[in-house]
């Protein structure tokens, strides 16, 4: 005997089931991609010996400028370009902040002030490389930032030889990175930016668009 107030529970519609399955699949794919992305982040410097025309340091993290200057001192390149420098900072001041003698390296260091993000770094550096007539470049940035940097630089400088030179910040814990809240949030944020950059570059190629170089 049925009760008058009882309502039969409705089963989920095929559309709702399909959306649920798609959401779960997307989450699994995103998670797998995140782990693949962390594996792309270099664990060491693979090439310490090749001499390039130039070195570029992408500002925004500890150890990058010091590494770039050390490479320049070892004559691993003819010039050092620092991209994304705050307005008002000159070469001498930058060398002083890096505890280097300005007289030794000042003539071989140039600063770029127009870049505000990684895509801007690539465009700014590409414009500078074109003026200089350089065809090879060593990129100095943090290891977790290197995959996105290479993505942007390969798009901006498709015919240039690029050599990654990662820096390894002490606060980034690569081993069991998911167990460290600071490192995990860093990787998640960087992975999300990588996906956005990859999508933008693919759409640009698909529709025949070219990234406008900074001047």
Characteristics:
215 residues; alpha/beta; Rossmann fold; 7 helices; elongated; disordered C terminus
Compact overview of the structure:
This protein has helices spanning 14-40, 64-73, 91-97, 102-105, 118-132, 146-156, 181-206, and strands at residues 52-58, 77-83, 109-112, 136-142, 161-167.
Please describe what this structure looks like.
- It is a single chain.
- The protein has 215 residues and is an alpha/beta fold.
- The protein has a domain at 52-169 and 180-206: Rossmann fold (3-Layer(aba) Sandwich).
- It is built from seven helices and five strands.
- The chain has helices at residues 14-40, 64-73, 91-97, 102-105, 118-132, 146-156, 181-206, and strands at 52-58, 77-83, 109-112, 136-142, 161-167.
- A five-stranded parallel β-sheet has the order 3-2-1-4-5, with helices on both faces.
- α6 links the parallel β4 (136-142) and β5.
- α5 crosses α6 and α6 (146-156) packs parallel to α7.
- The radius of gyration is 23 Å and the shape is elongated.
- Residues 211-215 have low confidence and may be disordered.
CATH secondary-structure class of the domain at 52-169 and 180-206: Alpha Beta
Low-confidence stretches: 211-215
Radius of gyration: 23 Å
Report the principal-axis shape.
elongated
Estimate what percentage of residues fall within beta strands: 5-15%
Mean pLDDT across every amino acid position: 87
First-to-last CA distance? 82 Å
SS content category: alpha/beta
Bin the helical content.
Answer: 40-55%
